[in-house]
Amino acid sequence: MQSRTHNTKRNIIASYILMIIQMxxxxxxxxxxxxxxxxxxxxxxxxxxxxxxxxxxxxSGFSSSVVFFMYKPLAEGSTEKVCALLNYLRRxxxxxxxxxxxxxxxxxPFITYLVNGDVPADVNIYVLFLLYLANTSIGYFLFAYKTSxxxxxxxxxxxxxxxxxxxxIQYALQITALVVFRSYYLxxxxxxxxxAAVNLFTAYICRKKYPEYECRGTVESSIRSDIAKKVRGLxxxxxxxxxxxxxxxxxISAYIGLSAVAVYNNYYLIFTTISAFIGALRTSMQASVxxxxxxxxxxxxxxxxxxxxxxFSMIAEFCSACLICLYQPFMTLWMGEDMLLPFIDxxxxxxxxxxxxxxxxxxxxLSTAGxxxxxxxxxxxxxxxxxxxxxLLGKLLGITGIILASLAAGTISGLFWQxxxxxxxxxxxxxxxxxxxxxxxxxVSGVIITAAYLIxxxxxxxxxxxxxxxxxxxxxxxxxxxxxIYHRSPYYIRAxxxxxxxxxxx
Length: 506
Hints:
The chain has helices spanning 4-36, 39-55, 62-76, 79-107, 125-141, 145-152, 156-179, 184-209, 221-255, 258-295, 298-334, 343-357, 360-368, 376-397, 399-425, 432-457, 463-486, 490-503. It is mainly α.
């Protein structure tokens, strides 16, 4: 297999190109939706997406489990075992698609109960939901399992290529549907076409690039049993992960209304867009870390973990500073002052972002070491706690309470409990040293972000010029402080060497 660094570099570049394209088109399309159709349509989009993400729990992590079992046969060159796993995943995906489709049809009659207030007069909420349902389920019948093969082979860049080509066509059709036809139905129909095209294109790439990997053969019963065991753990993990990220929009819609969902999700879009950039880094590293877990010593992997902790902590601090300093001026330019959240919500979103981002370091070893079953009680707690606090704090404090609930659930379940399990079960070490170092990073971050915000607040210039000046100050202060404080750290030196190696020509 090619070098881990080379594969990771290639995957990161492809992921970021696609992210930039998706982010740009997403901002454009949301702006056009508000201008042409109205804020409520954004609320409906967020609500339906949240509901269907919950239905996607039916997938239960089969793909992640199968990818985990592909790492070793790929490293050993065992083509037949990989083909058998791919064939197994294809059958599972077809069954999952059928389950999601049926579950969605059962949910359809009750959609109106999740909306507080009126829906747009010119839209049939049931037809619209069925279109979203079709978009969610179609991929399971059209070669979605091929993506798992590319992930395991460390060629995620190829599926990103398929997405990049299709996304241009899809968004062109969607923008035309809004501007020319003023039709939200056509907007969603174009999305369905795009989803189908991405899966067909991915299948074509796999057939051309890796013709030796076909759906054939049978997975050994012992492996099926191991997959089922890991899926049971992943099922709980997925339920928590989905509810953690989607209940917010559903509860806001039920308690406050579609317009509030739209306002919240404008902020959350930026939150998730930046998170996706960081997630792409982790995803691109995932197969390489999996290969390292299969081939390297435990000490080597633990040293790598501390490096990843430093790397993701610095990324989290830098991005959180930018969010807190630039959220409001950007939102004022994009959507106007009428669609701003209170500044306390901005601060909470920044803290939540930092807390969730640093978890990427040890989550690299959650999937590659197959520890989903050991995590199930942490996810059960997170789901129940987040739901209860969402309801209680949502009624009491509105959107502020819902953000607080998510932040609290993530801190207790993820940062403390899950970190402890991964360090104990895989690395066989105490989490004390790791967490103390993490809170030292947090303390330094708090000082730097406060300084950056206070300096930015002195700038009274508005508009694009004001945003650019504040961005320049925020980036300069934060990056300069990080380099000044950590330039002698061995992790900083290693991270710098890794970066230089990654950008160096092959």
